[in-house]
TrEMBL record:
This is Peroxisomal leader peptide-processing protease. Keywords: Hydrolase, Peroxisome, Protease, Serine protease. Belongs to the peptidase S1B family. One of its GO terms (biological process) is regulation of fatty acid beta-oxidation. SUPFAM superfamilies: Trypsin-like serine proteases. GO terms for molecular function: serine-type endopeptidase activity. It is found in: Peroxisome. InterPro entries: Peptidase_S1_PA (IPR009003), Peptidase_S1_PA_chymotrypsin (IPR043504), TYSND1/DEG15 (IPR039245). It is an enzyme of class 3 (hydrolase). Peroxisomal protease that mediates both the removal of the leader peptide from proteins containing a PTS2 target sequence and processes several PTS1-containing proteins. Catalyzes the processing of PTS1-proteins involved in the peroxisomal beta-oxidation of fatty acids. Its EC number is 3.4.21.-. The full-lengh TYSND1 is the active the proteolytic processing of PTS1- and PTS2-proteins and in self-cleavage, and intermolecular self-cleavage of TYSND1 down-regulates its protease activity. It comes from the Eukaryota.
Length: 358
């Protein structure tokens, strides 16, 4: 898949309750199989419509549609594929082959809990450190429960591509376990959700993989700039030929630690979301023929055919003075430079390095 095709793989998911005056909720999503209309997105907006919120704080692996209001309605808005450029009189000099917006109804198949992401998230983002992630004020209490961020929704929308479409099959994707820091990526989502789709729908942002954590790199951090509403959008790996593969779903575009803004985007590996979807179904891999590659071997992608620019030596480190913390730059074997306020006047500080998986 080429990078310019990424925008047609992403969508906006809008939720509302029939006969209700409440404002609809929205987020971004990824169409993982166009012909069957299979969409995955963040599960957080769906928590407003659950009939049992206690189930979200448990270790349950999935929730069925029966756990949600029977008045829940879902709409999916996406860009149609670009038409081939035409040299005839009907072509438009201002971009007649530009994709158009289309909206279809969708149904909820399940909410799945990505357990690997949940464990990694809870290990890294300790409650005592006062982490907070961007949500509406009314969601703040809910999001303090870290497990709420590990839920993802699986939807089935009306068919969003013709069978003859070259992108009608499974979206190309890649396991996070093959990633390294420094890999180039593209994030695709719709800032502000369903607001002003003509301008914001499927916006792209370039960056790199900033860091990785957890089992099979369940947590992916990137500096690709994202805004509220892009939750549920896709993070794509790109190589020199501008080929793109889906890496993960955006969990939070940014956050705060003790009221200090953190400008990194938090992403969950899509490989692990797929694995949990298969694991929580009672029949043997019922979705495999629809949108997953056959067998567990299909979840691994070789990196031999691509170059990865990654740091080979520990050139930076974590500096902790007890009261303050920050980063330092290693300029010699026994010399680290950091900001004065990080040291905070202490005669001794702790340095932590990450080198060769240690």
């Amino acid at each position: 898949m080429e990078v310019q095709e990424v925008e047609t793989c992403c969508c906006v998911v809008q939720l509302f309750e029939a006969f209700s005056a409440k404002k609809p909720l929205s987020c971004s999503g990824v169409i993982v199989h166009r012909q069957t209309g299979t969409v995955i997105c963040t599960g957080l907006p769906f928590t407003h419509f659950t009939t049992d919120r206690e189930s979200l704080t448990s270790d349950r692996r999935f929730l069925s549609p029966h756990n949600f209001s029977d008045k829940l309605k879902i709409r999916v808005n996406f860009l149609t594929e670009r038409e081939p450029p035409s040299s005839g009189p009907a072509s438009s000099p201002s971009g007649g082959n530009a994709p158009r917006q289309r909206e279809v109804a969708a149904e909820l198949l399940m909410l799945v809990n990505c357990l690997e992401f949940k464990r990694a998230f809870q290990a890294v983002f300790q409650e005592a450190d006062k982490w907070r992630f961007h949500v509406d004020e009314e969601d703040e209490e809910l999001l303090r429960e870290a497990q709420s961020l590990s839920w993802f929704a699986v939807l089935k929308a009306s068919v969003v591509a013709e069978s003859s479409s070259k992108t009608a099959g499974t979206i190309p994707w890649q396991s996070g376990s093959s990633l390294q820091k420094g890999c180039p990526v593209v994030a695709c989502g719709s800032p502000f959700g369903s607001l002003c789709l003509d301008l914001f729908s499927s916006s792209l942002s370039r960056g790199i993989v900033s860091n990785l954590s957890g089992e099979d790199n369940a947590i992916i951090l990137t500096d690709a700039r994202c805004l509220p509403g892009t939750e549920g959008g896709g993070l794509f790996a790109v190589n020199g030929a501008d080929a793109a593969r889906l890496l993960g779903l955006i969990v939070s575009p940014f956050g705060w630690k003790a009221n200090e803004w953190i400008g990194l985007t938090l992403v969950c590996s899509v490989h692990l979301i797929f694995r949990n979807i298969i694991g929580c179904t009672r029949t043997p891999d019922p979705l495999r023929d629809v949108w997953l590659h056959p067998g567990e071997a299909g979840l691994l992608v070789s990196t031999a055919d691509r170059e990865v620019m990654a740091v080979k030596c520990p050139t930076v480190c974590f500096v902790n003075s007890g009261s303050f913390w920050g980063s330092g730059v290693v300029v010699a074997s026994r010399l680290v430079v950091t900001c004065r306020h990080v040291v905070n006047g202490k005669s001794t500080v702790t340095l932590k390095f990450h080198h060769r998986e240690r």
